[in-house]
Amino acid sequence: MKKKFFIIALCFFVLPQTSFASVFFVEPTPGVLGVGATLALHVYIDTEEQHINTVGGAIIIPNTYIQFLEISDAGSIVSAWIERPSASNTERIAFSGIIPGGYKGSHGLLFTILGKALKPGTPEVYFQDEESYLANGVGTQVATHGNKITLTIITTSAEKYEDKPDIDSPEHFTVQRARDIHVFNNQWFIVFNTQDKGSGIDHYEIAETPDSQANPQFVRATSPVVLHDQTLRSLVYVKAVDRAGNERTEPLVPANQKTNFYKSSFWIILIGILLIGFGAFVFVRRNKNAGS
After folding, report:
1. Each residue of 158-167: pLDDT tens digit?
2. In the chain, count of helices (H) and strands (E)?
């Protein structure tokens, strides 16, 4: 109920009328997996020629058979998550979000699940509480369902699986600054996301500092994050840390350079004064030489 309330509130929907159809599905459909094998399940939506702007639901993957390593929304058509999909200790991965401008197509990527096969069996992967809404100004609800797939996991006695050490940092990413009258009371906030193909992303940390410091003070955070410095004069760092402890830090330069401008102006004025003083010294020296 809470999820549906947010969808209605954020999208300005009225009581919806149901029509049309859209489908959630997973690709690729893996063949036979050995215990210890890794897999990537891409969750898509087919809008069946309809223009939608809101999606929601849950995907069920038995976590006794699949260990979740990471859930990434890189490349997703959803840019404003109401409930961001995340890896947890439960088998249910809930999600809901808004697609600004809407989407119409047969392969709209929502998110990607990276996992590892734990034991032999034939677990089913399926969807629940499927929802989608038209981008028609009144939020007509679309009849939505999800396809089901079955994974086949077997024991691999001929090859023993061993975890390879992860020595690579998370991938490069971009920190984006934004503000909207409908979000965070119109305060400036940042959004960020990246992937790690080794052990997966463990957490993010951010730091705000008025100057370029050698050791900024980082605190754990989850995107999106409201900025403490609403004047936008601070340098912002976002650090992604994977499960092996490897890090990737990306900066976001201040939007308001007023503080730096004053520092630059001080040096410009000082240099100007020195040049004028030097010029006056040379002028006086020349006049003395000319008079002697």
Report:
1. 344 445 677 8
2. 2, 19
Please name the CATH architecture into which domain 2-154 falls. Answer: Sandwich (2.60)
Which H or E run contains 270? helix 258-291
Segments making up each domain of the chain, as ranges: 2-154, 176-252, 262-292
Measure the CA dihedral 261/262/266/269, to 10°: 70
Q: Give, in degrees to the nearest 5, the angle at Cα 20 between 15 and 24.
A: 100
Q: Where are the beta strands (DSSP E) in 28-91?
A: 32-34, 38-46, 52-60, 66-72, 80-83
pLDDT digits over 102-153, tens only?
999 999 999 999 899 999 999 999 999 999 999 888 888 999 999 999 998 9
Q: What DSSP designation does 184 have?
A: G
**What is the CATH T-level fold of the domain 176-252, as seen in this structure?**
Immunoglobulin-like (2.60.40)
The answer to whether the pTM exceeds 0.85 is no
